[in-house]
Amino acid sequence: MQDIKVEEIIVQGLPTGRGMAIGEVFLLDIKQKTIAPKSIKASSINTHKKKFLEAKVRFLNDLDKMGRELNDPGSAEIIDTQRQIIKDPEIEKSAFEIIEHKLLSVDFAVYQTLCQFIERLKESGSELFRQRIVDLEDIRDRFISIIQNNQSTRPVKKGSIIITSEISPTDLVSFYENGIAGLVMDKGGVTSHAAIIAQSLGIPCVVSTKKAVKEAANCKNVIVDGSTGQVFFNPAKERINEYRKKLSELNKVIKKASNDDDVFETLDGFPFRLMANIEFEAELPKVKEFGAQGVGLLRTESLLFGKRLKKSTEEQVAFYSNIIETIEGPLTIRLFDVGGDKVSVHPIKEANPFLGWRGIRMLLDEKELLRNQLRAILKVAGHFPGKIKFLVPMISVLEEVHEIREEIESMQSQLLSEGEKIDENIPLGLMVEVPSVALSAFQFAKEVDFFSMGTNDLTQYTMAADRGNEHICELFQHHHPSVLRMIKLTVEGADKADIEVCACGELAGEEIGAACLLGLGVRELSMTPHSIPKIKDLLSSRTKKDFENFVSKAIEASTSKEVEQIFNTWKND
Amino acid sequence: MIKKKITILNSAGLHARPSAALVKLASKFKADFYIHSLGYRVNGKSILGVMTLAAEQGAKLELELDGPDEKEAMKAITNLVQGKFGAEDE
């Protein structure tokens, strides 16, 4: 076989968790830079024209398919505009002219045609219209990639591994439904949105590879190892065998853990709860498969994809009802946490979006958006009393708590007056992610029913390191002793006020973090469903005292490295 | 051939979505449709042509229609523009 002669290429990225996959390369390289003009013979003019028409039909079909998958009016409108652009008679006219009169190839003809329009928009000097340039560039690049890949089958093959510079969560979910086996992303950090969703769906994923797209160009097969961050293009025969073995062992471990009896307590009987973090209905089967005891964090931002900030109450009711009906156990719904890393739906441009108008800060200004969501959640809660909890993101001062409580109460009385059922005691919790809350935990705890520690943002704000920025993601250290101290302060404040405290960041789903949290007395950990078996194994194999001993040492450490060393020594004890 | 001057009223101007609506409507008619603005003349049935006019709110355009159904076309297009493309202003 020829493949074996091709040299193996190893690309190192950042691991996002466990899981590995062997599969075919599916290169999602939509960012083409420039296309060089290629001369053609007069005899192939018609072939090139035909190629153009075929690509156009295929592009339109792709959009139709996408339209059916993203079946909401906001996306439909965007897709409809794209269809209009592709069908634009001026594109065909100009492309045909270039092919016929300049005798240049079809891909260059499309490139030059769209570049001309892009240039004209640039010249217009209108800020509003400049934004459209990105859309046109996107269409240009997709058009060309369709022309160039004309032979290969466009729909992704089951079991292939996506290699891309970046990917939107929505696209990722649609690829997942088509059966992809892995994801390699050149950009983004471990906690970038796409990486989190990949973990949640159980897709092995490596991020921040920087040059995977480049290396993948002529490769057929690839192995992605989500636990080491390694990506092997053209894997050698021995490598494939090694990974086949690892894969079958891993599958055994997962089977065993999820078949275990439902013992959720430490060796000495201290009970804990392991919950799932989810965002999409597509993730629901995983909640059950990995034995989560409920959903500890339902992210709701996906309801806003496609710039639909006015998502109706009815659609939200259907979404929340479906989830609460499908899962066993309670459901914590986090209000829209828009901003920062979800810039695409962010209506304003900010110099520091992570320190800006997001979470509760935005919701209290956008009353219609807030009230629609409160109404939907409270309506569903009325039908499932005692099962749904509210979680408010990005609280930094107490006034925000008062204001949101008033909003909830007034919506409750409005629903009552309309004859709806309500859950009078629906618990209100806040996300502890801003240091100002952790440092004054008791004062906040007195005013709410529970705390949920968002350790990703808490880490980001404690370390002043943007979690999505690949240049500094090394500074984003969840194990840093300062982060652990923030958590300790939060738990102490919650204990003093006698409220529940849980953790829902990525820290909860990895061994060091989970050990620290349990040692500090946090009984409820919510994580990507995939991590549950591993964490359950660890937490049920030791005594509570054991975890306390570990954390008391870890918290005295000076660096993240030291914390990790203390853990390794402790674990092998 | 008939001509008419109109002003863009909606706040977003002739950006992607309104352009798409305009082109879609114009394409239903047989008449050739051109838009004149600031010395440019673009094909009104080409969304890229319309978009590259970069006509913002307040921009003055001249519509040119030529064909058997030019009168109906002019009426429909004028209604669309004056009705702010049926969009709620956000």
The proportion of strand residues of chain A reads 5-15%
**Helix/sheet category of chain A:** alpha/beta
Class computed from helices, strands and strand pairing of chain B: alpha+beta
Categorize the overall geometry of chain A. globular
Number of strands of chain A: 16
Account of the 3D structure:
The complex is a heterodimer of chains A (573) and B (90). By secondary structure, chain A is α/β, with parallel strands linked by helices. In chain A, 48% of the residues lie in helices and 12% in strands. Chain A has 22 helices and 16 strands. Chain A has helices at 45-69, 73-87, 89-101, 106-124, 127-148, 169-177, 193-200, 212-216, 237-259, 284-289, 313-326, 360-363, 367-383, 398-417, 435-439, 441-445, 455-463, 481-497, 511-519, 532-539, 544-554, 560-571, and strands spanning 9-12, 14-15, 20-28, 161-164, 182-185, 205-207, 221-225, 230-233, 273-278, 295-298, 331-334, 388-392, 428-432, 450-453, 500-503, 524-527. In chain A, strand 5, helix 7 (193-200) and strand 6 (205-207) form a beta-alpha-beta unit. In chain A, helix 1 (45-69) packs antiparallel against helix 2, helix 11 packs parallel to helix 13 and helix 19 packs across helix 20. Chain A is globular and about 85 Å long. The relative contact order of chain A is 0.10. Residues 1-5, 306-310 and 340-346 of chain A have low confidence and may be disordered. With 90 residues, chain B is an alpha+beta fold. Chain B is built from three helices and four strands; from the N terminus they run βαββαβα. Chain B has a four-stranded antiparallel sheet. Chain B is globular. The A-B interface holds A 77, 80-81, 84-85, 88-91, 117, 120-121, 124-126, 128-129, 132, 135-136 and B 12-13, 15-17, 19-20, 23-24, 43, 45-49, 51-54, 56.
